[in-house]
Fold these 4 entries.
Entry 1:
Amino acid sequence: MLKLYYGLQAESGNKGTTATTDPCDINGAHFKPEVYLQRLMQEKSLNELMDKERDMVRQIRSLDSDMQTLVYENYNKFISATDTIRKMKNDFKKMEDEMDRLATNMESITEFSARISGTLQDRRQQITKLSGVHMLLKKLQFLFELPARLKKCIEMQAYGQAVRYYTKARTVLDQYQHMPSFHGIREDCSVIVAELCVKLREQFKNKESDAHQLAECVDLLLQLKEPADELCDEFLLHARHKVDEDLEMLRLQLRMLEEGQVPSPGDPGDGDKPHPMDVLEFTDTGCNVFLSDMCLVIASYKDLFINRPGTGVQEQAHLEKVANQKLEVFVNSLMGQYFSYVEQRVQLEKESSDNTLLVRALDRFHRRLQAVEKLLPETESTSSATGIVAKMAHDRVIHYSEALRRHFADCLTDVRQSLAASRSLSKQEGSNLGDLLQTTATSILDQLKTVLSDLRAFIESDITFAMQPYFREPFCVQDVREGLVVGFLKHMFTACSEFCEGSGDKSSAPPPLILLLSRLCLDYDMTTISYLISLTDEQFLVEDKSAVTPLSELCNLAKDTAQKLLDHYVKVQGLTISQMLRKSVETRDWLNTIEPRNVRAVMKRVVEDVTAIDSQVGLLYEEGLRKAHSSDSSKRTFPYSSSRQNQRSQWSSYAPSSNMDTSLMSNIQKLFSERIEIFSAVDFSKVSVLTGIIKISLKTFLECVRLRTFARFGLQQIQVDCHYLQMYLWRFVSDENLVHTLLDEIVGSAIHRCLDPITMEPSVIEVICDRG
């Protein structure tokens, strides 16, 4: 058996007889040690025999070791097998005895069965017939007793048992209604079932019936072949009464809030009197009451009319179609009212200062509506809820945008008040200009960061709608980044630019305010805009930059606004000084003036104002680049360059009868002088700003001088004034030659317009100016 199991018999059969009977095959069954040893001694040498001996000893040891290992490894198996074999011997003995008894019993059973078959063989057909008659009589008895049973069930309010009795017999009664006896039973049952339907409908219309009782009533009425359309309408009408009560409670809350009653958290109200709810409590009430009832109605309705088992395919398809249409109209009507109430309630929170309650309320509202959509996907409740959430988030962004704009306007008002207070107290408008700039910039930036932090509540990780792409991307990109941050920056720059238009209240803006706003816009261009945009993109995960305003565009807008404001500041300050100079020239009688002994007060005022402006601008802007000054810039006797002194000295001996045309001299001189652009754009530096103001002032002075006629002393007064201006103004400009050139032209124009052009001695001019 072992050879058969391991296949040794087949293997030995294939090898042939010679292979199995070889006496020298040490592994064969016919191995003979004497023959094997004799062959080895004949064929092998002594060394080979010794090697063969060692090899055989090694193999013997290896086999012994393997045998011991097998014995050790299978020792427990050997013991277990021995015990099993011993038990099998005992069990087989008992089994043999039981098998003997079983055989004896089977023989007895066979004998009795043969006897019974023989005895009943003649009566078998008769017994079968009697059994059928007995079953038929029981059915007839059930039919005859059916009316009484139905009445008994109705009296006991066992409506379900009554319906089961009737549905069980209905087919037979319909089939044999042509027989008088069955017809009478059928008529009696029809009257009783009609009464049963009335009681079921009464229970169905009872407002105190719970969902289980309603479901049972509808199920029984459907089994009684009541019209499904009418049952659908009655079920939804009954359900609507309860849901309308929930909506009425929400509407009452809205009316209380519209009347001005303020919700107070934790206030339970006075007894049964309802109290105003905050937005979170309002949403919880709507979810736990209205939406819970709606889910229960939908689930019950679908179980009764749509997912109803045991009906025909065509009948089920028709019922499902009609029931779905009625349910969809019912749900859409009520959900529309609910959405309207929720939207009205959250709109009341549009201007609240805290987003926490609002976002939690919107999250619960959105989360609970997902359950409604799972029950009835045709309503698309989630998309409607997302629309409400998105609109509320958009309204909050608009509210924050308006708050930021009001805050910016308040900051400008505070700056104006501070400047006015500083001017009235110390006559130094710019003494605290640097602090005002820092305070204003910090206030605006902190307000923006606070708003961004508040709006992050809409995209927290635990908010369900925050992770939806149809909400997150429009909110983060279009509302927050573009609508709030970029929109506020553009509004701020536009509001600043309006100070340069010269219309309405903007035209009365003090120059220090314009200067401060210019520096503020420049700081935004250099650092603040990049920081704000990076902060927004990081906090709100703005990844798609294709549909957003580029950073470079905002920086360019800020820089252009800063440039426009600074140019306007230069223009305003230049025109202020020009106004003083124009009045000083136009109101003086230059033909009858006395010989100059002092510098006019207006020139001192001009120097004082320019010095104040220099201090004011220096608080906000860097010094800037200057050209190298000459060593005698403050000691020139004439306010014109030394290279022209020889020409100017000729003016002292100028007479109207001279052959030299003075206007020709002036025009020839201008050909060799550099053109001065008066209203050119200034750089963002103190020197450039002061240069622009001084250019405007001196150009106005020049044009006013060209329109007046001077006597000799009037010309000398102009000389003294110009020399005084030259002594101080060269320090403020980027190129002192610009001041020298304009003052040269002023003196030259005065000489040209003088009736007796005799200039004053340089030494006398120096004495007067030093004394002034």
Entry 2:
Amino acid sequence: MARNRAIHNDRVAILLLPKSEASNVGDHGEGEGGSVALGAVVGVLERERRKYVATFEEKAEESRGKTERVLVLPYDTRIPKIRIGTRQADLLRSHRIVVQIDTWSSASQYPDGHFVRNIGPIGDVETETAVIMIEHGLSFPTFSRDLLNELPERERWEVEVEEEEKRRDLRETHLVFSIDPQGCEDVDDTLSVRHLKKGVTELGVHIADVSHFVRPGSLTDAEAQRRSTSVYLADRRHDMLPPVLSAHLCSLLSGVDRYAVSVVWKMDQNYDVKSVWFGRTLIRSRYKLSYEVAQQLCDGAAASDIRGDIPELLNLDLSQQELEKRLEELRGAVKTLSEIAHCLKQRRGEDGAVYLDSFEVKVVMGEEKGTANIEDLVPKQHLDVHDTIAECMIFANHWVAKKIHSSLPTSSLLRRHPPPSQTRFTHLRTCAGVRGFQILTGSNKELAESLDNAVDPHDPEVNKIFRILATQAMSQAEYFSTGSVSSYHSTGSSVHSTGSSFHSTGSPDQFSHYGLALDYYTHFTSPIRRYADVIVHRQLLAVVEEEKRGEREREKLPGNVQLAEYCQHMNSTHRAAQLAQMASTEMFQALYFSNHEREDERCVCVGVVYAILTKGVRVQIPRYGVKGVVYLEDKAGLVAQPAAVSEAGHCSVAFASGHLKVEETRVTVTHPAGQYTLTLLDHVTVRVGVEVSHAHGPSIRLYLMSCCTVDPRERRSPLFTSDRGRKEVLAGVRDDLQSKPVEAPSLSSSSSFSQTPPQSSLYCLVQRLHNLSLQDAD
């Protein structure tokens, strides 16, 4: 077999095939952006020892309570079937279970493993959420009693006299406030801004002092380091820290005294930095604002319109004059922040910062928890104040990175974003060329300017698609220890060494952040939800204490080797958390459409074609943040005709004999009723359906209804974001369709990934590479 009993994420030795053999595979040897080397696994160097979620086969003979060797189907379609011994097959056939692989004999087609535990019934929200966490290697059990006993009691905690004496007290002198999403409990950051004498403006970013409560060597620190990050799923949050810290003692809530670590700049009238101060502070936030309220303040909303949305003002017995005075003070601070942030963003843009985009949605849940009671999928609205807060946080992270690197050149924790490989931009350039735009990618500045210029005033989704494709082309940002970066640098990647035999401070280019256009960057502003920020706080405070007292505080910090190991763990955990969040959103998107599948007005959407595949096209639906494949040819070789819609609003997908002509930027379908062509960036009308699988989770399936949509030059955004818009699209499709509904075979519900093939040949490897080529770049 081409993979020789290797499983996904195993470390393997491979034998590259000669070019003469690779040439026999035709165009399967060519991938997007260049040639793909072909090879075969000749040995497994290290197995990934992990547990897998699996399901018993749906149709199987009853075991009658006897222990039998049965095959289970892993949730991950990249993993082969696993043979286990159990007597519970009949009882758990409708459940998800956890299994582990033990061995894989060379004489066996499948690996052998054992049953670990039952998760729960298939389709239950709690079960499927647990599956997502397990499949991404994330474990967030209840915090232990011993760990909780280390922490202060919430009700009895108060500011310590010793801490009050050694911290800069900002409680009475500064207007401190936070701006966060509605309902946010773990408030990491607050801000302040003051106008001083001689045109000087003081900007302060004040971050929760988690390091005061989470001490090195404690159980809390060990558990936070293991978790590394909080995980935000569509309907819940898994915290890195216990609630007594994350939602209370560390959270910078309004009206209570809190410990903070602050960065305070003094700026001139052009917002150039004249001085900067780092240190521990004592703050009392006056307002906990939502993004929406902060935006209303910037937009000049009247006091009567927003007082009810500011809890700190709601219950105060204030005269109208006093209320206006307080609101104007707050409004002035938010507006000044906005001006500073706009200036900072403009400067980064001039240096080549790349502003990316995405179609994000919020899952609105019903009151009944633990069920698939999803009321709506709401597109996240971008506000100017989002940029204001982001720029202030980026600014603080940048200055802290410079500070710790100047004092700890071989053991500071930074975050870098290597330049992406130029070949990864091929598809973006092709898409842009369809609309006559040229995307230059020689540098981040060229890319940023090209994206800014690639705007179609009649079709705003096009620029979003370009920025999404640019996002997919990016390399992954990562944490690293500055002492473990090699001086060798090639094609946007850097070599890491965690061994003690290698130490190098590397070059500044290797430390830089491509997307943000900054020479030094780190994470400092979210210590409640990221362990990297806790380490950076410790490094910054050690440097500050050394400067103040002259003591060797850095000796208490982790050295380069240990820090590099932390970074490796944090990078993998953060990536897993991101993927779990995406999987959770996709699951709830599928559940939403499964609840409304026959209500076609909700399921009929306008999408944008953003990729041409061998047997279909990839489509992005801005309204719901959904993307998927519209198959134009099924496994039987039949081609798709636009769906027919009945007067009742129901539609059926018709497949008939015909053929596809696939080109780089378009696909032409010829069928008995005529011919149609889909080109990159075309707008098409699709029906969103859900494919249910016994062994795997529900997944979105898109079906072509019509190639004809409202002309982009004539449409407006509400057409695609409102119920009225969906009705108009559906009515337009019904008018466009001339043919009657045609009964046709549906697409197979089997996965696009096969389990372990029974035969061993080069064809298996080629087919595998072909399947991989159909997957998203991200």
Entry 3:
Amino acid sequence: MQRPFRPEEYSLKETSPHLGGAASGDKLTTTYDLVEQMQYLYVRVGKAKELPSKDVTGSCDPYVEVKLGNYKGTTRHFEKKTNPEWNQVFAFSKERIQSSVVEITVKDKDFVKDDFIGRVLFDLNEVPKRVPPDSPLAPQWYRLEERNGHKVKGELMLAVWMGTQADEAFPEAWHSDAASVPGDGLASIRSKVYLTPKLWYLRVNVIEAQDLIPNDRTRFPEVYVKAMLGNQALRTRPSPSRTLNPMWNEDLMFVAAEPFEEHLILSVEDRIAPGKDDVLGRTAISLQHVPRRLDHKLLNSQWYNLAKHVIVDGEQKETKFSSRVHLRICLEGGYHVLDESTHYSSDLRPTAKPLWKHSIGILELGILTAQGLLPMKTKDGRGTTDAYCVAKYGQKWVRTRTIIDSFTPKWNEQYTWEVYDPCTVITIGVFDNCHLNGGEKANGARDTRIGKVRIRLSTLETDRVYTHAYPLIVLTPAGVKKMGEVQLAVRFTCSSLLNMMHLYSQPLLPKMHYVHPLSVIQVDNLRRQATNIVSTRLSRAEPPLRKEIVEYMLDVDSHMWSMRKSKANFFRIMGVLSPLIAVAKWFDQICHWRNPLTTILIHILFVILVLYPELILPTIFLYLFLIGVWYYRWRPRQPPHMDTRLSHAESAHPDELDEEFDTFPTSRPPDIVRMRYDRLRSVAGRIQTVVGDLATQGERLQSLLSWRDPRATALFVTFCFVAAIVLYVTPFRVVVFLAGLYTLRHPRFRHRMPSVPLNFFRRLPARTDSML
């Protein structure tokens, strides 16, 4: 049973974390000033020398075991090596330290029982403290000891210190929190910074082909050009000139990513019959040598020879001949390749770096903690969550480390981005890691989404630190669900207020989007291809940022049909129009003298504006200024967050949610699909009626002078002639004054019947009579 809706449960909460504070009252400075400091004991195991052999074979297979209380970490082992080099770092959270001594033991790996070689002990009270920007602690050689304290042969190079998460060793260190994770799963829990591959639009202008040789010379060829780049495939329309020298002059647009590993494959094909095409020739073009342009100036075109494939004795051979194709190919550096929804873009810069403007500031994000996370999976008969965060802004993605088996994970990691435009959005997502035990190799597990937060930079005050707990809300087929809260600290620092203000007068997208715009369908298709490229590249990183994560962060499915979203957008429109409707109702009350005093004051104001029309515009702007100053007292103090009421998430019908989560094409039974189709038809029928009514009113306006109704047009033309003469001889102020008095006349001079102009307009003909 779904819980009752409580608005406060989904609201934003202001928090007061102890940001940047050092423990024990030490006045230590750190660049991590947007997170709470977390103390760690670091142990760097460098290398060993002159280790004695313990096996009967005389060999030594050494590894190091670092033990602190109940936590134990081990290095990899080397076979038959007495001078091994590990260079591994171990980090133990100070909150969970249960011992006053850290024990570092060198052991010899054996089949039955590992042999003890020697150990080094450190008293935690004597461990030095280090906080960057202090230089790293230099490792030292320590003589190994027996358990009884006697020195033995062999030395171990170690460095032991107390530090924070700001330490350079922190990201790659083995963490005591992840002691239960096997070695092959450690890579998937570490923090990581990723970069989106540099994306270009590739424009292929297919101009013409010459000297084609069709296989069937008894017919006129129906030729088109097919282009492929990776898994992207586009084709031109068939050439209208059905000759051996066809012409197209058609643009094909692709998305290409650096480094350019794939070739552009073009083939000229002849459509013999539906579903049957004959390849007349093809060519492969390396993108490494394709010219790049930064503006809309045309580049030189080029002829490319075509190679025709002929099957001879079952083997494929290439035979070159004189057929060729005329192309103009370029990599477009003046566009911004859209890989995000245009509503939540985090980067608007063009591809070519020479066109970038200077940055206007710095965005700093502290990912602190999460509270009240729900169990996402079952392990050993109990619910558990292994949470990590992903943040995306511009070309930079960051991924925090995974906190194992915790519903209140503490990350306390801080990241920084350069800001080039304030009208951009940073997206932060929380996910459950399902790949700790080799899950990527078995059963194709997918990391589960816990929730997402978007913060628009233009809604933030500069140099202010925002510390809030954001609700993590997801929509499921069962309804809206709160998965917990994530606590963030955000600061937007502006380097030049003047430059930032100037940006508000600049176009949102680069110049080429307006000089040589792409169609809506092109942008949508190219965005889909760009998203696919980004998700594929990032999923090949180590640790991988998986495809389902990237698609969720980039809102890949935001364009899919949803009855819930349609209702939400309708009520958003009504919310925009409601002030206008309120003004219209207020003016109607003025005209009907509901409040005589207000109506009289409006009459006086109207007379003043008629006598002094030069006061109209200053009065309007002064009124808007006063409204803005008045509302300043109630300006938003908190950044926006996911609004379930605005999204109509809490009131959505279960069947509407099931339709929203359906696959494309549908996987539901025919009866359900038929019911939804009928519902969609009824909604579309109402929209069709509204659109038809709008068309009718427009056609009536056109029919005023079209003489479709000769009597109506004659009356209108005569009225226009008389009105022109009257207005020529009557001062304009008098006309406006009389029209205003007529509009504001007293109710006793009004009647309930429609006015004469409205009656006349409704009688005008429209083209509905000609509709089937």
Entry 4:
Amino acid sequence: MSRRNYCSNRIFVVGIGFFSLCFLMTSLGGQFSAKRLGDSPFTIRTEVLGGVESRGVLRKISDMLEVILKRMDSLSKLDNTSTTDARRLDELSSAINRFQPAGLVERIQAIAQNVSNMAIRVEQILQNSMVQGRAVRDGTSSQCEVPRDPRFPECPGKVDWMRARWTSDPCYAFYGVDGSDCSFLIYLSEVEWFCPPLAWRNHSSPPIQHAQQAKAPKRQAAFRTDLSVLLDQVGTGKESLSFMKRRIRRLAQQWATAANHLDAKLEQRWRDQKKILVHVGFLTEESGDVFSPKVLKGGPLGEMVQWADILTALHVLGHNLKISMSVKELQGFLGVPPGRGSCPLTGPLPFDLIYTDYHGLQQMKQHMGLSLKKHKCHIRVIDTFGTEPAYNHEEYATLHGYRTNWGYWNLNVRQYMTMFPHTPDNSFMGFVSEELNETEKRSIQQNKVNSMAVVYGKEASMWKVQGKEGFLQILHRYMEVHGTVYYETQRPPEVPAFVKNHGLLPQNELQQLLRKAKLFIGFGFPYEGPAPLEAIANGCIFLQPKFHPPHSSLNHEFFRGKPTSREVSSQHPYAEQYIGRPHVMTVDYNNSLEFDSAIREIMRTKVEPYLPYEYTCEGMLERVHSYIQHQDFCAPESPFIPANLSRQGSSSGSRITGPLFVPLPNSTALGWASNVTAPPAWPPLSSLRLLVSQEGQSCVEACHSASFICEPAHFRFINNKDALHGLEVQCEVVDSEINHILPAFSVVRRECGLQREPLLFSCAGHSPKYRRLCPCRDFRHGQVALCRDCL
């Protein structure tokens, strides 16, 4: 039998089955209700048994049957139905013949779903057949072979995925995907970026649905000191927004002074003005916004403090800023029509940078859809506690037990921006504390009450600390204890009677209380908030508990599920490690003798108000300016090949023969050889200090112990045999693998491993069996985020 006759017979069988199903539906309608005059066999009323639900089901059946009827007519006219399509028609015919009139009411849902599936399959057969026929006529079928291009290694896999699931989202059809390999390749090369451009496509004109926009000329950013426009942009309607605006107004003069200082420091240097969208996801109604209702009830303010300062820094630096506090505003700024679902954006992103948080990232995935993959290099994620590489790499995290509810976005981990510099794999964003002038500092020192303590904890729940009665009684023996715990009518029972509770205070009154107090004492929670820095800036000594063992996601509920394995040794590790004595004391609260001794030492010690430079307005402006002008995660990083380097002053093309890394004077670290041309990098390679960790030690710890900081951007320059040779590491085997502790080596086995997946370069990784190659760097005094040559 010829293929055409065979397919015609199959279509006939499908048609017979279809009309049998029509008869079945007509009979079914009689069982449900009397048919009205003028109703077609496919518009059945269901008033007796089914109600609204059954009426919807039958309407769905009616719609699907009418679609199938139209497709049957089209299929019967095709001359080029393939063997594969014939097999699909066989399946369709069998599916229709399986319908039986038994158990009618009970099987309506199943019938509706099967009919829906049949409609989709008929649609696919029709589309594929028509497209293949068109391709044969146009001579383009041979031009749609799946390319094997090493620059686009994911292309074949993505085509296979599209073949199986292109009907899973209507967006694919929206962009012209019709089930053919040609349409898959056009989509994957022009809407997405997984496949190379097709040579036979007309690239001189913009592709359909993907119009190219002319690149706008660069504009210079100018410092701003007037914050009125920013205040209008922040908006109204929530107490969280009111809090942020009060903070912006209160610090306005300090931001203006800082802008003038940084402008002078940069000596009128050109700065690109960026188009920046700030989407504060955790304050949107769609995320639940649990923060706004608690602003006036002692709830956490740290995130709002940081976001207010980020908005101000971006505005003062002179960038073109848009602020979104709802999903509707996000859609409007991104140009996504409401109801378009997950259809990806096409053409250029209307912003150079997008600052958001994990809630906002999820919302953008939902409303930017598939294009988030293409545009994610523009995103910066404000992430309080940090995200480590092992948790960020989706496949690796899933296979090795690092998968959590957060993380797994496959970003460059420097796109995550933290509140404190605790995770060098990420970028340190920070916030600001109010800076005092010299007159205010002298006044504070003159008016300090040596026997006055203020407790860190505005919510009554923070006072539910096991054993607090013991150390509070010791404190009460020496000092008058003050609290600022929120309450409505009755004093919280968690607060002891000897504590003078002021209730929740406005910021200016809290500041006056801190300026009088000698001690600011923490109970262990909240972790890593802004309040201890504010207290230290107002002349207090901060006393906090030491944690034995350190708190982490392995042993503490608060950190469980967060995308980090970081161990927290105290309530505020930054204060402990970067400020320290005499401003900060960290002791074991369970040791009454140690606690008693600490209180007596605090009363004897005189301190001046102190604020680290990186938490001043100028320090934050300096840091954010550097990130915006120098961090570029969209430009592809070419593989670093040492053999391609040349010595400075040598003729073009000549290759180096000496070492890349040389010993530094008075140091155990190696530096970049000064006579070798350094490839473009930020931070510059002049800041690189190559070290080796001990077994079980992370690069965070190894660099810190040498008074450096780990720099993840430098990993690609030390992930080679030249670095191993410079460190005189003996390797019998050098393998390239995917593991977040690499590059590293085993002394016992004499095995060396290099990193094959750049997203897994990790300062935080460690293993008891391996010593790690660590890319440390120097840093500016008071500004750990920037190297000495970074500004």
